[in-house]
Amino acid sequence: MGIIWSLIVGGVIGWLAGLIVGRDIPGGIIGNIIAGFIGGWLGGVILGEMGPEIGGFYIIPALIGAIVLVAVVSLIMRSLGRRNRA
């Protein structure tokens, strides 16, 4: 049950980050889960362990890390889209 709970929490974190940034992460549900996991790692590196922990994720750093990740990925995707149209 621990892995399933981590997948759910990672997906919710990735989904919330997409809502906050206003951009969807490519890949749907799987993309949200990946963004949540990478965001959790990135936030842990940047901010450490702070706030409540759910499913192995410290929520505040994971959400901030996922927001940074979604913003960077959306900028990269947008620049690639412009390059392909030109």
TrEMBL record:
Keyword Secreted part of the UniProt annotation: no
A UniProt-annotated Pfam family: Transgly_assoc
Membrane topology of this protein: Multi-pass membrane protein
Compartment(s) where it occurs, according to its Swiss-Prot or TrEMBL record: Cell membrane
Chief subcellular location: membrane
Entry keywords, A to Z: Cell membrane, Membrane, Transmembrane, Transmembrane helix
Domain of life where this protein originates: Bacteria
Stretches that traverse the bilayer: 6-22, 29-48, 54-77
Family recorded in the similarity comment: Belongs to the UPF0410 family.
Name used for this protein in its record: GlsB/YeaQ/YmgE family stress response membrane protein
Annotated organism of origin: Saccharibacillus alkalitolerans
